[in-house]
Amino acid sequence: xxxxxxxxxxxxxxxxxxxxxxxxxxxxxxxxxxxxxxxxxxxxxxxxxxxxxxxxxxxxxxxxxxxxxxxxxxxxxxxxxxxxxxxxxxxxxxxxxxxxxxxxxxxxxxxxxxxxxxxxxxxxxxxxxxxxxxxxxxxxxxxxxxxxxxxxxxxxx
Length: 157
Ligand SMILES: [Fe+2]
What we know:
Layout: H1 22-43, H2 48-76, H3 81-98, H4 105-135, H5 142-150
Helix pairs in contact: 1-2, 1-4, 2-3, 2-4, 3-4, 4-5
Residues 69, 84, 88, 122, 126-127 line the site of fe (ii) ion.
């Protein structure tokens, strides 16, 4: 379990995660599948090579997904894009802190804990805030949503 004791739920795709933006929803499904594969490789005691390969695939997809999502937001003129990019960057830095090329198993296990939880939280808060804004029904005070999206232990993402 997580050091902060907060559980944002198992990493499972469901209709609850649908934002109504087709390109992003499709990518979120693929992203979740890749992170699940990584999580499974760690949990099921996959070989170091299997774990490394699954992590590399998840990390590569994370990078291209962040870029695509930021492009969609930029094209839409999303006013909170800078804040969203910052959230992506903080997660990205944390992922790379674990993505050492050495075989540091405990770090990979730690990441297998962090990444699925961060992903569920991020989709359900920051990404959903964008979807609401895009639909024009963002009644949620953005500051409140942003603060909610940043709660992850003491990690400001
Ligand atoms: Fe995002």
